[in-house]
Design goal:
This protein is an alpha/beta fold. The chain has one domain (about 15-435): TIM Barrel (Alpha-Beta Barrel), CATH 3.20.20. It is built from 17 helices and 16 strands. The strands form 4 sheets. Strands 2-3-4-5-6-8-12-13 form an 8-stranded parallel barrel, surrounded by 5 helices. Strands 7, 9, 10 and 11 form a 4-stranded mixed β-sheet that branches. The two termini are about 25 Å apart. Bound molecules: beta-D-glucopyranose. Beta-D-glucopyranose binds near residues 29, 225, 351, 396 and 405.
Length: about 475
């Protein structure tokens, strides 16, 4: 649906020329047929909570180009995808030229459509052989990761110069070694969690140096998941303390290692030498989804004495099979960008989105994210792009197909795609490089009054 053009006296949120409007994806969640990594083994062992199988996923190994066409029609100029290490190096030191050829074709297809690729080297999946040796806890893990990185960059470097080394090292290590929902499924292994994250920081640094050796002008960064933790009772000192402690344990290890080459006590006891990690990024990627309110509670010892809560009436996404996800919090983009600004590098929102099968909340979420991006730029923060998670419904790790993050709905059995209205809305924003009141009237009326209070037909925002 085309939106009416904004009238001259209407306010518009415009973005700088060249701002990136993209989508984020990952190999295991999109390609299908990945049977040589630890997530496939995890699925085979019955750990996907919905009981689903990844199967063909979005069938990108055969037909990614169909979705690249959709991204082009939507007016997107950027797409983040990841390489599947287990395809490229199926056995230690053995390289699969055909897999690399397929990635070359995908990168070419993106460039032909004027979509700039950002390539992630590690998005949660390990080749089985790497996992079996202890993954990032193995003594030669960093060397192995560096070697794979160099091989990938040698093969693909003429088609891409924008590299994200590692996706969400905090989620990978905390959910895999402390919570147990991701492989290897360890629970409460606090020291191992720190050691894994520290090893990933060293692997990132080694990859950063290797990429620059091969491609001096490359832009290399990583994607950090940052969850916002606020005190449940703003006047409670204990809530503040615990919220700060949880925040530092969850969000801060990696950014701090890159900023200072060190870890904070007590993490420093297990982290080992991080000096080589200092100053190893040309940009910082932030992935953000939720806010949790933290209530001091002596009964929550396993959660550092902080009980997670969500404010009554706060917007909530579709929920995971077990457990809960917090408040959907796109406004957090401003706070999170401010927080990583001391790294002194360009900032990209490398993931932000919502699980919402019926698209009841997503248009509001996109509108709020765009408002926050605009506010961040107005504050002088160097935000260069936004990658919505995600283009198409995809295999959501331990949740399987139970939660739907796509701008485009997918029936994994038939591979049939049905764009949600959010796809049209996001497309209008990308085409215009702006957000107008007319777009909100058409797609997200509940956000209109808040974003353009003076606009005619602004309606009071609903609670979700
Ligand atoms: C991950 C994605 C995931 C998304 C939605 C991020 O933590 O990087 O792979 O699908 O969140 O849960």
């Amino acid at each position: 649906m085309a939106t009416e053009p904004a009238t001259r006296d209407e306010q518009i949120l415009t973005f700088p020329p060249g701002f990136l409007w993209g989508v984020a994806t990952s190999s295991h969640q999109y390609e299908g047929g990945n049977t040589n990594n630890q997530w496939y083994a995890w699925e085979q062992a019955g750990h996907i909570k919905s009981g689903d199988t990844c199967g063909l996923a979005c069938d990108w190994w055969n037909a990614a180009e169909r979705d690249f066409d959709a991204a082009q029609r939507m007016g997107l100029n950027a797409l983040r995808l990841s390489l599947e290490w287990s395809r490229i190096e199926p056995r230690p030191g053995e390289w699969d030229a055909r897999a690399l050829e397929r990635y070359r074709a995908m990168l070419r297809a993106l460039r032909d459509r004027n979509i700039a690729p950002m390539v992630t080297l590690h998005h949660f999946t390990n080749p089985l052989w790497f996992e079996e040796r202890g993954a990032f806890l193995a003594s030669d893990a960093i060397e192995r990761f560096e070697r794979y990185t160099a091989h990938a960059v040698e093969a693909l470097g003429d088609l891409c110069d924008f590299w994200c080394t590692i996706n969400e090292p905090n989620i990978y290590s905390i959910v895999g070694y402390q919570i147990g929902d991701f492989p290897p499924g360890r629970k409460g292994a606090v020291a191992a969690t720190v050691r894994v994250q520290a090893a990933m920081a060293r692997a990132h640094a080694a990859a950063y140096t290797a990429i620059h050796r091969l491609q001096p002008a490359a832009r290399v960064g990583w994607a950090q998941n940052i969850n916002t933790f606020d005190p449940a009772r703003p006047n409670s000192r204990l809530d503040w303390r615990i919220a700060t402690l949880i925040d530092s344990a969850f969000n801060d290890f990696f950014p701090r290692a890159v900023r200072t080459g060190s870890a904070r006590f007590p993490f420093s006891l297990a982290a080992g030498d991080l000096r080589a990690v200092k100053d190893t990024c040309d940009f910082v990627g932030i992935n953000l989804y939720y806010r949790d309110l933290i209530h001091f509670d002596l009964r929550s010892a396993t959660q550092l004495f902080g009980r997670r809560e969500v404010a009554p009436g706060a917007p909530r996404s579709d929920q995971p099979v077990t457990g809960t996800w917090g408040e959907v919090y796109p406004a957090g983009i401003v706070r999170v960008a401010e927080r990583v600004a001391p790294l002194g590098k360009p900032i990209y929102v490398t993931e932000n989105g919502v699980a919402d099968a019926t698209d009841r909340l997503r248009p509001w979420q996109i509108a709020q994210a765009v408002k926050a991006l605009h506010a961040a730029l107005a504050r002088g923060l160097d935000v260069r792009g936004y990658y919505h998670w995600s283009l198409v419904d995809n295999f959501e790790w331990a949740e399987g197909w139970a939660t739907r993050f796509g701008l485009i709905a997918l029936d994994p059995a038939t591979q049939e795609r049905t764009p949600r209205r959010s796809a049209e809305f996001y497309s209008a924003i990308a085409h215009a490089n702006a957000l107008t009141p007319a777009m909100l009237r058409a797609y997200a009326p509940t956000a209109l009054a808040e974003i353009f209070p003076d606009s005619p037909a602004a309606v009071a925002p609903e609670t979700h």
